[in-house]
Amino acid sequence: MTRHLLLSLFAFSLLAPAYGMGKKQDKNQLTFHLQGDQTDGPKMVFPLPMGNQKGFFRKSPLTFTKEILAYKPFFSDDGTAGATFAFSQAASTRIAALTTQNQGKWIVAMLNGRPVDFLRIDNPVRDGRLVIWRGIKESEIFAFDYVIPHIGEDRKDWKARLKAHAAAKKAAEKAAKERQEARNRRN
Question: What are phi and psi of 148, to 5 degrees?
């Protein structure tokens, strides 16, 4: 009995990783968090290094990924990407209210759980757009392309761009496969 149990557990441990092999990649999770105070307590804020000092930011985000309507990517001087994000009306109203009340404070942009950029609030944001100036990886920009249209792009153009991306990806995979087969034939 024990032997059968051990064999079945061993077989399960070998097969368990295979179930996640075809798993679809998670979408990018982008949130913006407003600066808080250390006195707010560890349940309300989290610490982040800001240069040679420690900043505390609210755990509850100012915005969520699902509130992004469109974005416009660009490349920054340090080689990483940045982007302007346009938010829904409800999120825009919330952003305007909080940036009016909290001038002089900081906002941290968190992408997939890592801090990407810090934004200083010097004026109220009334247009519903927040900019991450640097720190976004190219692969994260490509992931955004599949779920969010560019600013000024209508739905039809966005879908056409997605089809072109898919066709280019398929062609690149086919070319890589053919190169590998050619190398295998030479060997």
Answer: -135, 130
pLDDT, one tens digit per residue, over 11-62 is 444 444 444 444 454 578 999 999 999 888 889 999 999 888 899 999 999 9
Cα–Cα dist 15/13, whole Å: 6
CA distances from 131 to 15, 70, 127, 140, 181 (A): 44, 12, 12, 15, 45
C-alpha 122 chain-centroid distance: 25
**Can you read off the two tokens belonging to residue 131?**
């900019």
Tokens of 29: 């999770």
Domain boundaries, the chain: 27-177
CATH of span 27-177 = 3.30.1360
Question: Mind listing the pLDDT tens digit for each residue in 162-185?
Answer: 888 888 888 888 888 998 998 888
Residue 120 phi, psi dihedral angles, 5° rounding: -90, 130
